[in-house]
Request: fold
Amino acid sequence: MKKVLPYIVISLAMVAIVGCCSPDEKANSLFIEAFRLVEEAQEAEKISYIDASRLYEKALKKTEIITTKYASSALAVQIVLGKVTLAGYTLSELKEILTQVRMKAKAEGDLRMCAMLVASTITPSLGLFSKDAALADIAISYAEAGDFSMTLDVVKTISDASDKFRVLADVARKYAEAGHFDQALEVARAIKDPYYRSQALTYIAGKYQEAGIKAEASSTLSQSIEAIKTIMDPDRRVSALTEIALTYAKSGMARKASEILSQALKVAETEMEDELIVYSKSRALIDIATNYAEIGQYYRALEVARTIEYPYYESAALANIAVKCVQAGMSTQASEILSQAFEIAKTTRKLYALANVAVKYAEIGMSEKASAILSQAINLAENVDSSYELADIAKMYAEAGQFDQALELTRGVEDPYYKSEALVYIASKYEEHGKQLDDTARKILHEILMELNLVVPKM
Reply:
């Protein structure tokens, strides 16, 4: 009996303890803790979404204990009905907030994820470019980084067929780069848009050539040419033709390349005279001039470049030709042509013209000259307020490896399309330079996320 007595006493004590704390009292205690956690999370959002996410998760767990373990309590019923809130949030709102904050927490350390959240704010009223176009850029960026899982996840959020085809063309290219030609061709042939199908097939043909599989390369190029015949847009037809010309040039078929370039030039000269597409014509002529230089026809390349009406594009074409001259061992001619490009760039208000020339000087090893021109462009940036120009300058900083400045400028870009585009570009440059996001970069990304009314995309 003496041995049993202590157990009876302990049991009675436990009953007393349990009895003095009803489900309502326990629920109330948990609610107070959850309420305080939500308030702390709201404050944490101002500094770190990672910390805020952890706090919201703890608050949600305590709230769910109330609604499950103490479901009979009056408070549990009120919470489920949405009549009681935690620091302003109902239970369903708390779950949605946690979902958003988790996404933002990931975006603080992932430029592409941040770009995707920024892209989610794009509406037709905000500008020319669509949300689908921005998402396609992001999907392609993931593909370029080798993350096909995320590529496919982002593609699922794209509704525009043309933008989906653009991503598929890039996926086909990545398969070809890895030597998976059957998969590459399968993806390419599934692309219904003839322009993007041609792009993919031309690239695959080039990879066949590099692998020494000449018969398949020739067959694939023929398929690409057939696709080009159905491209209605002259701008895209010129672009596709110049890509094929370059592929022929790389295989040693300079005469065939020259023939294709002549076709492209004819299209540009006869079908792109409309004032509305003159900018497209200028861009097309850059490609043609560059590819003439690629096949060693430098005089013809310069002739084409000097027919370009707009200084920005003429400067870009000359800068490209200069790089091709350097690659051919023609350093003196390259320096002269690049000087011409620089002088023309100074006559245009396009800041990126100067940045482009600076990059080309860097490519040919003239780093001091590149730095001096880059400084001029940066000085001009003080008076810039348009989104696309700010985004271009941000890219310029990233190109030079000055990532904190690039991100700070991107934060100031108001148009979400250009902001998203800049973030994707900066992400690729981080990888090229072998860099990781530091604390300063994460802080800027946090500020970008704070400043926008973000909508988390459903994937």
In short: Residues 91 and 242 are 58 Å apart (CA to CA). The two ends are 67 Å apart (CA to CA). Residues 1-20 have pLDDT under 50 and may be disordered. Residues 21-103 form one domain.
